[in-house]
Amino acid sequence: MTRLMRAGIAALMLAPALVLAPAGAWAGEGEGMPQLNFANSLTGSQVVWLAIIFAIFYVLLSRVALPQVAAVLEHRSATIAGDLDAARGAKEQADLAVQELTLATRKAHADAQAAIAAAVAEAKAEAARHAAQLNQALEAQLAAAEQQISAARGTAMAALRDVATETASAMVQRLASVAAPREAVDRAVGAVLAGRG
Fold first, then answer.
1. Which residues of the chain have pLDDT under 50?
2. In the 3-class helix/strand/coil scheme, how is the chain assigned residue by residue?
């Protein structure tokens, strides 16, 4: 029971004494309120019953009502304290969850950046390998084409020499009406073609 409650009960108990003191002073006088005339025996019994009722009221308040009120107040304080503790715990858990989420987001972002960088590097390496293979294939095709061109040129030159030799022999025969020796015409054509080559 709190001190404030005890002070209230004590004030209630002292109220009859405060009322009776002036009433005793007025009892000698013939004036005043008849209810406070202590010369009358009925007034004394009323004061006794008043004291008994206040005593019963004090006992009931101090033993029954006020402990229940105090228990309700203590229960309410405990409930509020428990709710505050639960709220603090929930806030701490929420803060931890936010920190974990932030760390997980940063890690996922870093992992994604690393994966993107690895994929780009792998794509560049694959493109370089593919370009090298294409270059090798093109170089091989160019070499083959050059060989074919060289072979075709040799074939063409050999055919051209034969055609030039025959044409020169035919022209000499027409112009001079004499058949030129094949070896001399072949040498002359060879010398002309060598000068051009």
1. 19-29
2. CCHHHHHHHHHHHHHHHHHHHHHHHHHCCCCCCHHHCCCCHHHHHHHHHHHHHHHHHHHHHHHHHHHHHHHHHHHHHHHHHHHHHHHHHHHHHHHHHHHHHHHHHHHHHHHHHHHHHHHHHHHHHHHHHHHHHHHHHHHHHHHHHHHHHHHHHHHHHHHHHHHHHHHHHHHHHHHHCCCCCHHHHHHHHHHHHHHHC
d(CA 88, CA 113): 37
Tokens linked to 58: 């004090």
| Backbone region of residue 23 per phi and psi (left: phi > 0; alpha: psi in -120 to 50; beta: other values) | alpha
Number of Cβ atoms within 10 Å of the Cβ of 84? 10
Whether the Cβ atoms of residue 180 and residue 169 lie closer than 8 Å to each other: yes
CB neighbourhood size of 9 (10 A): 17
For residue 97 the two structure tokens come to: 């969850």
Residue 129 has a pLDDT of: 92
**Measuring CA to CA, which residue among 108, 120, 5, 15 is closest to residue 63?**
5
- pTM comes to 0.38
Domain boundaries, the chain: 148-196
